[in-house]
Amino acid sequence: MKKGNIGIVKAIGDAETKLTLMEMGIRPGKTIEFLNSAIWGGPIAFQIENNIVAIRVSEAAAIEIDLIKK
Amino acid sequence: MGSSQAILQTKTIEVAIVGNPNVGKSTIFNQLTGLKQKIGNYPGVTVDKTVGSCEIKDKKFSLIDLPGTYSLHPNSEDEVIAHRVLNSYDQSEHPDYAMVIADASNLERGLLLCSQIMDLGIPMALVINMVDLAEKNGIEIKAFSLFKSLGIPILLTDARKPKGIEEIKDLLYTENFLEAPGFIKMDDILSETLSNAIQSKFGLKTSYQAFQLLGFQEQESILKKEQKDWLEALVIAHDFNLAKAQIQETEMRFGLISKVLEKATLKKPIESKNLTRTLDKILIHQIGGYAVFLGIMLVIFQAVFSWAEFPMDLIDGLFANISQWLTEHLPAGAITSLLAEGIVPGIGGIMIFIPQIALLFGFLAILEGTGYMSRVVFLMDRLMRPFGLHGKSVVPLVSGVACAIPGIMATRNISNSKERLITILVTPFMSCSARLPVYIILIGLAMPNENYGFVNLQALTLLSMYILGIVAVLASAWILNKILKTKEKSYLIIELPIYRIPGWKDVLITMYSKSKTFVVEAGKVIMAISIILWVLASYGPSERMAQLDTEREVAIQGLEGEALLESENNFASKKLEASYIGILGKTIEPVIRPLGYDWKIGIALITSFAAREVFVSTIATIYSIGGDVDNELTIREKLAQETDPITGAPIFNTATVFSLMVFYAFAMQCMSTLAVVYRETKSWKWPVIQTVFMTGLAYFAALITYQLLS
User: Domain Ferrous iron transporter FeoA-like spans what residues (chain A) (predicted)?
Assistant: First the structure.
C-alpha cells in the first residue's frame, strides 16, 4: 500500500498479534486508508474508521487488503 | 437498627474505573479525586496502583484507577491488573462496582472491553464520554436502546465540562450500578464441564471468569503453583486451545456489538475539517515530523534549564541558611553538626532537583495530553530498533535528562521484557541534572569563556557532554541487544489519538506526583547515604582527631575575621583528611592515580555516591574553600591554584578535568537509581551488572582521556 491508498480489510492471517490487531479495530470488512510511514521502513500509520493506528511493517504483513482506491 | 445504619453510612464504597486508553479516564479520575490520590504497588507486578478518595455529600468513595486497556486478554501487566482487581483476587481490593468509560466516537472498541466486564458479573455502569465531539462528527447515540440491549445503566456525558462531572458524581452517589446479564454465550467457547470444574474449584460466579482464569494463569503471579499446575493439567486433559478460543470470543463479541450499535447509533456523514489529519500531514511527515520533534525537544530543554534556575537558587539558598542558622543557634555538638552538615544539606540536595523534574514532567504530560507522545513513539521506533530499544523507550530516555529514577519507572509500559530491560540499563547514561553542577565547575576550569566564531566554547563543551551520554546510551544498548536473548516477539501496535488541548489539572497532578515519587524514592536513599557520609567525614581514628582539635584551639587563638576563617577552613580540610573518608580516599589513590586524580578527588568520588552533585561541596570542603560554597567563581579560582605538593604542577590541569568529566558521564554513582533498578527488575543481578559495566567503562574511558591529554 502507498500513501493515499484506500482498501478494505479482507482477512487477518494467523499471527501472534492477531488478537491485539482485532482489539484495535482492524477486522475484516473495515475500510483502511494509508496515511504515512516513518523513515527507513519504519511503522506505518493508517486511518481505520475514526481512529489512526500505527503498526510495524512486520505486523502489517498479516493483514490482507483489497485495494479500492489507488 | 441504629448501629447498623451508622455502619452503612461510614462504609467506603469501592469503585474500579476501567476503559480504553485515551477515553478521558484519567481526567475523570483527577477531577473526582484531585490530590487525594495514593500511588502504591500491586504484589508481583510493576504497574502503579492508583487509588483516590472522594466524598459526595454523605458518602465516601474509594476509586481505583485501572490502567487503560483494550480488552481483558493478557497482553501486558496492565491487563493482568484489570483482571485481578475486577475479580477481587487481590486480597486488598474488592471493588463493589465497575465504572466503564468509553469514547463516544469509538463505541465499538469500548464495548468490547465493556462486554467482557459484563460477563465477569460485577455490578457496573457504562459512561460514554466525549459525546459532544461525536455529535460534531455526526454520531448520535441512543442511550435507551443501548440500555435495552446491554442491561446496564448508561450515562452519556462530556467529562471535560463541569456538568459532565456532576452527572458522574450523581451516578456514583445513587450507586446506579447493575449486574449485567451475560453478553455472549460462553458454552461455544468453554465447554460446560471445563467451566464447572474451574468455577467450583475457585468459587467463581460466571463461566467467563473461569475462562479468564485460564487465560491469565501464566501471568497471574498471585496464583499458587499447585493451582497453576491444576489448571494446566485441565487444559491438556480437555485439549483446550486458548489462543483460538480468545480469537473466537473476540469475533463473537464484535459480531454482537455491531448488531447492538446498528440499533443504538445513527451516523450522519458529515464532511468536517479534520484537524488531526491536517496536523499529522506535518507532524508524522518523514522529514518534517522529525524536524518538529527535534525542535520541540530543544525548546523543552531550554525552558526546563532556564525556568528551573531561579527556584533552584532559592532552594539552595534556603537550605544553606537553615544550616547556618542551626549552627549559630543550637549548642555545638555532634547532634547539631549532624543536623547542619548531614541531614539539612541532604534534604536540600534532594529538593534542589524538584524544579527541573516537575518542569520536565509537566512538558511531557502536555505532550501526552495533546496526543503527540504516540506520534513520537511512531517516529522513533525505527530509529531505536537497531539498538534493541522500542519506540516507547524514548520517553524514559528523555526523562533521564532530568533524573533516571522517574525515567526507569516510565519503562513500565514497554511490553517486551528484553526491550524494557535494555531501556532500564541504559537510561542512567543520559546526562541527568545531578551531573550538571559537576560539569559546570569542571568546564570552567578547562575551557576559556571565549567565543570561537559564533560558538561559546564552554557551551559547546557542555553540549558535547550531553551528546556523549546519548552515544553511551546507544552503544551500550547495541551491545546489550547482541548479548541478551528473548523468545518474546517485539511488536508495535499503537493508537495515534486525535489532537486535543491537554487537561491542565492532569498536567499539574502529573508534575506533583512525579516530584513526589522522586522525593520518596531518591529521598530515602540520598538521606541515608548523606548521614553515613557525614559520620565517615566527621569521625576518624580518635588520636589524630584529638590532636587536630588541640592544634586548632591553639591556632585560632587571637585570630579574627579573614584570618580566623582561613585558619578554620584549613583545619576543616585537615580534619577531613584525618577522617575515615580521608583514609578511604588515600586507600583508593593508587587505583585512581592513572586517571590523574589525587586522594582528595578520591574523597569526592566516594561522596558522589549519595548524589553526583555532592562532588562540588566535597571538593569545596577538602580544598578548604569553605564559606560561600555556592560561588562557583571562588571554587574555580581556588581549584585552578591547587598544585601537586611534590611536582608543583597544577592538579586541575586539562587532562585531569576532562578525565573527571568523562568519569562522571559514565560512572554509576547513584544509589537511588540502583535501588529503583532493583525494584523494577526484581533482582540484584541487574543493578550489580549495571554498576560494574558503567563504572568499568567510566574508569577506562577516563584512563584513556587522561593518558591521551597529558
Answer: 1-67
